[in-house]
TrEMBL record, chain A:
Subunit structure: FixA and FixB form a heterodimer.
Alphabetical list of Pfam families matching this protein: ETF
Signal peptide start-end: none
The keyword Electron transport appears for this protein: yes
Superkingdom as given in the UniProt entry: Bacteria
Organism from which the protein derives: Magnetospirillum sulfuroxidans
Protein name: Protein FixA
Keyword Repressor carried by entry: no
TrEMBL record, chain B:
Organism field: Magnetospirillum sulfuroxidans
Annotated Pfam families: ETF (PF01012), ETF_alpha (PF00766)
Designated name of the protein: Electron transfer flavoprotein subunit alpha/FixB family protein
Keyword Electron transport on entry: yes
CDD domains: ETF_alpha
Keyword Kinase carried by entry: no
Keywords: Electron transport, FAD, Flavoprotein, Transport
Source taxon at top rank: Bacteria
Residues that span the membrane, as ranges: none
Length: 283, 366
């Protein structure tokens, strides 16, 4: 089984701050992590490899420093890593990103056909969930998003059966390889890297593709130029004109504060009070 | 939506694509469309919310509002079409086929792509549900057009193009994204972000039928089974009347009992902020905010939640927000209506008691 897992290096969003005056992101010193959603897909890929054999290649598109994320993934257990990096990719939206990644996957498949592509459900910085479906569409892979469990993989028949989360329940789907899978959060627990893997991850050379090496001839399909969406404005949200009315808490017992809060709520929403009292009376 | 374009475009500014120069082949793309998302005979309410919003966009542009309904044959689509008219649609494009009875990416994407290529809408909106996101990502790729995910605000700018605003960078900033030179301009919007429009009984419109050219043997993915959710808890949070939520300020997972206690007295749903889910203290379906559920309750009580933008956008539709936080400078006080500066661990039980007493007293008096 030849499996490619697409990952993304993202800033640890919990630690991003906005400059109070210029309204720009202050990235300096913000640590980067592998997009947490990608780890569920990486683990699922590693489990399938352990089960039926084969190899797992992690692929990322990003600046040269994204190599760190690839090495982390190899430390966890991925066999190989490919870094797709080129200044032509700067400013890619999801359409341009899925184009570049699908070209790189096609290149990887020249050595050996790719059976499965895993992507994160979405990233924590972009939150779009669009790159996985974009890759599947471009490569003609059967698409399985929001997978909560992989029930069976029949390598001989080249069939995979999964449970997929839909709005009102779970679909049990069976499809043919090759396919693209995104895993739901909580669907597994990422393994700890073994010592040999961690050591190997530090040493092993990482394959680097620029646009040309990925087989991209027309770089206008990449980066800002290849992106149909245009970000026209970035801004911090306006604070509401009137801030929260604070309940007086100075030297008062908690019960008085709570009573004041209840009064304030019911004064602002008398209908809510009526409804709640009605409900309480029925109970 | 671009993951990386935001800082570059914001800082850099000038490039050819920043200007609107719509190619000739897109000039006859007109009208606003909303996907009417029907799964197993039930329309997701986000479709009606989007018709309400789409109506405003269509009126601003002076064009028609259409629903696009992909469905299996049956009575459900007749009722869905009537409802679509009542929520503001002027017409409904209907593709009815047994292959569309259940959602699968391949037939849905083929159907939607064909519908767009045939009837050429300028704007196409879908709910940011699992179905909508799975489908939109594919359709935007087949159409090679721009798609903006999880928008919180839609508007038409002075050039008549769709200005789609969404939180970015984990919800620290908002950005406004345009698809200037490709059509349709696509966007997904999360359930409950837009208000539910009033239904206008008796409002009617046209139905345009279109057929799917596909056979079951063309479709590679097969549905073996469907297991409906036993409890509908997850849906209830988004549509709850009252919601009580806790954040990292509660300190320990055990303390969330204070949240559920208050929720129980109020007959409310309970939830939490994103870091709480990341810590594994509560399941993901309880998360409120940009990447979790968007709520529009009549009363929202947020305890120990700092109020990052990604949380704010998920609760902004609430009628009343009461925030409890030890930090008087917490951003949540900037958008809450009422605030208590104090320790949620003490305030929550006091609130539970106060509500319990108040409701009991009124019950005796009433």
């Amino acid at each position: 089984m030849n499996i490619v897992v697409c990952i993304k290096q993202v800033p640890d969003s919990a630690q991003i701050r906005v400059h109070p005056v210029t309204n720009t992101i202050m990235r300096q010193g913000v640590p980067t992590i592998i997009n947490p959603y990608d780890l569920y897909s990486l683990e699922a890929a590693l489990q399938l490899r352990d089960q039926v054999g084969g190899k797992v290649t992690v692929l990322t598109m990003g600046p040269p420093m994204a190599e760190d994320a690839l090495r982390k993934a190899m430390g966890i257990g991925a066999d190989k890593a490919v870094l797709l990096t080129d200044r032509f990719f700067a400013g890619s939206d999801t359409l341009a990103t899925s184009y570049a990644l699908s070209m790189a996957i096609t290149k990887i498949a020249e050595d050996e056909p790719v059976d499965l592509v895993f992507c994160g459900k979405q990233t924590i910085d972009g939150d779009t969930a669009q790159v996985g479906p974009g890759i599947a569409c471009r490569l003609g892979l059967n698409q399985l998003t929001y997978v909560s469990s992989i029930e069976a993989l029949d390598a001989k028949a080249r069939e995979i059966t999964v449970q997929r989360r839909s709005e009102g329940g779970v679909q049990v789907l069976k499809t043919k390889l090759p396919c693209m899978v995104t895993m739901l959060e909580g669907s597994n627990t990422i393994r700890r890297g073994s010592m040999p893997n961690v050591l190997r991850a530090g040493r092993e050379p990482i394959k680097t593709f620029n646009a040309a090496a990925a087989g991209i001839e027309d770089v206008t399909r990449c980066g800002l130029r290849g992106s149909p969406t245009v970000v026209k404005k970035v801004f911090a949200p306006k604070p509401r004109a009137d801030k929260a009315k604070l309940i007086d808490t100075t030297n008062r017992p908690t019960s008085d504060i709570a009573n004041d809060a209840v009064e304030a709520i019911f004064a602002a929403a008398p209908k809510l009070q009526t409804d709640l009292v009605g409900r309480a009376a029925q109970a | 939506m671009s993951d990386k374009a935001a800082p570059a475009a914001a800082a850099g500014g000038s490039r050819a694509g920043m200007k609107k120069e719509l190619p000739e082949r897109f000039r006859d793309y007109k009208h606003v469309w909303v996907l009417i998302e029907m799964e197993r005979g039930v329309v997701h309410p986000v479709s009606w919310e989007l018709l309400g919003e789409g109506r405003k966009l269509a009126d601003k542009l002076g064009v028609e509002l259409a629903g696009a309904l992909l469905a299996g044959p049956g009575d459900a689509s007749t009722k869905a079409i009537e409802e679509a008219f009542s929520y503001g649609a002027d017409l409904v494009y209907l593709m009815e086929d047994p292959l569309l009875a259940d959602y699968r990416n391949q037939p849905y994407a083929a159907a939607m792509t064909d519908l767009v290529n045939t009837f050429k809408p300028e704007i196409l909106l879908m709910g940011a549900t699992n179905l909508g996101r799975d489908l939109a990502g594919t359709v935007a790729t087949t159409l090679a057009t721009g798609l903006t995910a999880d928008c919180t605000e839609l508007a038409i700018d002075h050039e008549g193009s769709l200005a789609a605003t969404r939180p970015t960078f984990g919800g620290t900033l908002l950005c406004t994204i345009h698809t200037l030179n490709f059509r349709p301009q696509m966007a997904t919007i999360r359930p409950r972000v837009m208000a539910m429009p009033e239904a206008q009984e008796g409002r009617t419109g046209r139905v345009v039928r279109h057929s799917l050219v596909m056979a079951e043997s063309d479709i590679i993915t097969k549905i073996l089974d469907f297991i409906p959710d036993a409890n509908m808890d997850k849906a209830q949070l988004a549509y709850a009347d009252i919601v009580v939520a806790g954040g990292m300020g509660l300190g320990r997972p055990e303390n969330f009992k204070l949240v559920t206690d208050l929720a129980q007295v109020l007959g409310a749903e309970y939830g939490c902020s994103r870091p709480v889910v990341q810590k594994g203290w509560m399941p993901a379906e309880r998360q409120i905010g940009q990447t979790g559920k968007t709520i529009r309750p009549r009363l929202y009580i947020a305890a120990g939640i700092s109020g990052a933008i990604q949380h704010r956008v998920g609760v902004e539709g609430s009628d009343i927000v009461l925030a409890i936080n030890t930090d008087p400078n917490a951003t949540i006080f900037e958008f809450a209506h009422m605030g208590i500066v104090g320790d949620a661990l003490q305030i929550l039980p006091a609130l539970t008691e106060a509500f319990r007493r108040r409701l009991a007293v009124n019950r005796l008096a009433g």
